[in-house]
Amino acid sequence: MNWKKWFWALVILDIAVVVLLAAWLFQPAKPISVPPPKKAKGATFTVYSHKEHLNTVINDYIRKKTKDHPLQYRVWLDDRVYVASKLPVFGRELDLVVSFIPKVVKGGNVELQRPEISLGEWELPVTYVLKYLRKHAPLPDEVIIDPVANRVYVALTDIRFGNGYQVSARKMDLAKDEIVFTLTIPTSAKQ
């Protein structure tokens, strides 16, 4: 085969790779339905916390849920909610950092809005990265990624901690380090 045939074969292969990559990136996302908040019956307490304490609890929960998954990540609260992981790209690991602004929504759940995403030094298109994370990240069932609306919904009221404890958010002001939750401890005693 002469060099012209090899050249055209290589061009066709390049075009096929670009078309397949574009088809994968631009495939439509499935619509997301947000579950209604669940209410536990029992004694309720108002808990005032700070970012430092919440960071410890969140990452302990994530560590337990993603223990054996190859894609590990961590979360921390600062001026925004940050999620960081390392992704292998061309034989080296790059830092993937996603940040959000939290908003407490009706029922005590949290919606993470206005995402900003970077991979190493590059800013990435939000919708495509959220699609990727929805498919490949080992997220707890209570975390719902909605790439169409560019948000992440955290169904706090669906999370059950030891002995069935339930948490619902009341206030998250990260700038003032004011985080307020309602803790419900289920009771079995009849009144």
Describe the structure.
The chain crosses the membrane at residues 6-26. InterPro entries: DUF2140. Keywords: Membrane, Transmembrane, Transmembrane helix. With 191 residues, this protein is an alpha+beta fold. The protein has a domain at 52-158. It has 3 helices and 10 strands, in the order H-E-H-E-E-E-E-E-H-E-E-E-E. It has helices at residues 3-25, 51-65, 126-136, and strands spanning 42-49, 73-77, 81-89, 92-105, 109-119, 122-123, 143-146, 151-154, 166-173, 178-186. The strands form 2 sheets. Strands 2, 3, 4, 5, 6, 7 and 8 form a 7-stranded antiparallel sheet that branches. Strands 1-10-9 form a 3-stranded antiparallel sheet. Strand 2 (73-77) and strand 3 form a beta hairpin. The model has no long low-confidence stretch (mean pLDDT 80).
